[in-house]
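Put briefly, the fold is written as integer tokens. The lines below illustrate.
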Amino acid sequence: MSDDPLSKSTARLSISTFDVENDNPRIQVKELLNNIGASELSRRDSVVSITSMEEIEKTNERMKRRRSSVPIFNDEKRNKSDSGPKKKKKKKPSLTFKLESTEKRLPFHCLRDLVLKIFNVNVSKFNWLRLENEAHIPNVVFCMTPGLPYDIFTNFKENDQLIPMESIEIPQSLEFFNKQFSHFINTSCPGGKDSIFPPLQAISNAPLTKREKQELLDKSKANSITIHDLLLTAEQLIQHNYPVIRKPEEVDLITEDEAEGWVVTKSFEHEGSHIFALDCEFCDANGVKVLTRISLINFQGEVVHDSYVKPELEITDYLTKYSGITEELLKDVTTTLKDIQEKILTLVSKDDILVGHSLESDLNVMKIKHDKIVDTSVIYEHVRGPPSKPSLRWLSSKFLNRSIQDGEENGEGHSSVEDAQACLDLVKLKIAEGKCFGVNIGEISLFKKISNDISSEGFKSLWINYSDHKYQESYHEPSENMVDVEYVNNDDEVVEKFLTHFNDSRRFTLLSLRELEFNVLNPNIPEHYNGVRDDKENLVQLHEKLNRRLETIYERLPANSLMIVYSIIGNPKEMFRLQGIRKQFQKLEREGRDITKLPSEESWDFDKLQELYEATNNAKKSVTFIKLKE
């Protein structure tokens, strides 16, 4: 090693550079020179001069290499700008489709799973799309636009699930789709082989795990209920076709009801039970259902009234297999429908509760109006869920371990007393087991699911909804404060509500633009809808308005937001027609009618079943567009 003091000083400097405040070469040289003693410099024949930037940089590199091998003993003296944690650059979210060529369309539930995955809710078998940095997606907007042109999205040869937009011809009136999306996904509306389910219901509910189901059942049983918790709401009475009691101010309508033979239960005081189970038996009079037996029992199971009834119309089919009624039984009966009405009004007060199974049929035939109803076909659910209803026979077998209506096999028919007792026992069991007993609890509100799993404080979803206001309010649990629901009457209000209520805390938004649907697909239009209707001739204008609304919504979204646009393109009209034929055929068959005499257009056979499958498959055709906003 050289004896040159400069070399020795340089060596000392390279070991102690963790004390230096920064790496500026000129400062390092200054420090170097300060470490050289004045006496050493005076004895040199010439002054040491380091002026070349090249030499300075070489010296700096040597010091850095040496410094990296030396342990740091004093953290407080570290250069904060060098050693502190560097601020990570926010990673941009991305998505990559992993859809393969197949004749099978993407199931609708995959779209719901996508929403859940973005909000960090575990979903199984999510393999059709790869997400990266999804935690940095600030907002998700799921927009339903039923009624996009069928021909546009089916006029291609490919069987791929993922179709490039360039392979189809989008009209100028729908340029938003060409402008913002590179592909569309062939999707299947939720449903089975012979029916479709409302996509709105499917997207707004998420499946429960086995553990979550059991927790919900246990919680339900722990929360005691009374029979008043099982009463149908005013909206449910309408939904299930119960006769509606007119308001006092509707005097003309009340008078009209009385003229048509209707009666309404009145308030009065009486002793004994205030809960009654009711069941009736009916016969057929040239296609008109007529009352032939009525049974009423109290909450203790005691028969309060049981009598046969002679209808005014001539009976053409006694339906004995089901009703148990024969001509012999009614031969000497003189009790009329009016007698039954008067009797019921003396036994059942307006304030009492009537229990029954699909009791709307009984009350409509009896022409009696009563609004305190517990319906076992509603408080217990069919395994397929609404609108299907479970039979009383099935409910009795499953939950009461009791066989009823065995008379169908031996020709004796049903017993209205036995059926009324089964209804009453099912209600008592429901009260004991809790509100969730006997219903399908495989799902939970998507908004609640996200709200439970999301860690962001104050997180809420936004739902801009066309559903009937009162019915929707009864469906939600406002106390849970998980979603803000805004109700609308037309598509302009949808956009207005979105612009008004969308913000950073509303990270998930669900909305529907339905003007095109109401004009193209002929669905059941809500009474409160006040937008354009019956305007099929001006499709271009309808498309242009939809295009503008989607553009407005998209423009409002911040960068990296995810927009999902879903549209049913298949028309369910033919499916509904075939379903109606099958329903009527099965009804006649249950009533014991001679179905062999039905005309071919009203009969049901294997060929019509295949037609229904095909019509359903066409009705389920839908398309999805997905875009991360840049």
Summary: The first strand starts at residue 94 and ends at 97. DSSP finds 27 helices and 20 strands in the chain.
